[in-house]
Amino acid sequence: MGRVEVFDHTADLGLRVTASDLDDLFQTAAEGLFDVVTADRGGIEPRDAEPVAIEAESLELLLIDWLNELIFRSETGHRLYGRFEVAVDAAADRPRLTGTIWGEPIDADRHILDHEVKAATHHAVVLREGPEGWLAEVIVDI
């Protein structure tokens, strides 16, 4: 299982994600995003499943688009997500992610919202494979 750290970046926040493979990296990045959005991601019940499919020009753009898709669904559907299963195909002409996300409607009696995340930005995005696995850094606009 991957690991995520939050780091300060001017008026924004950065997510530094490490994982053994790309699937784990993208899943862990989503978990890290909702760790920023909520004070207790563990309190989000996986009531409803939603399919997701995204393509992009590069792996870096795929990661940004993935996080922005989650932000969009959360904001427009007034939902929180806490469970993610994804498969990343980096060998395709255009990298793609397919999977399922689980969540529930925001319940003000149970969920404590921590930060309003507006977007994952293109600024200073890093995504690379190293000897220990994969590393990504993404700045989120709060």
UniProtKB/TrEMBL annotation:
Superkingdom of origin organism: Bacteria
Gene3D superfamilies: Archease domain
Gene Ontology biological-process annotations: tRNA processing
Keywords assigned by UniProt, alphabetized: Calcium, Metal-binding, tRNA processing
Single Gene Ontology MF annotation: metal ion binding
Residue ranges constituting the Archease domain according to the UniProt record: 5-142
InterPro entries xrefs: Archease (IPR002804), Archease_dom (IPR023572), Archease_dom_sf (IPR036820)
Family that this chain belongs to: Belongs to the archease family.
Protein's UniProt name: Protein archease
Organism: Paludisphaera borealis
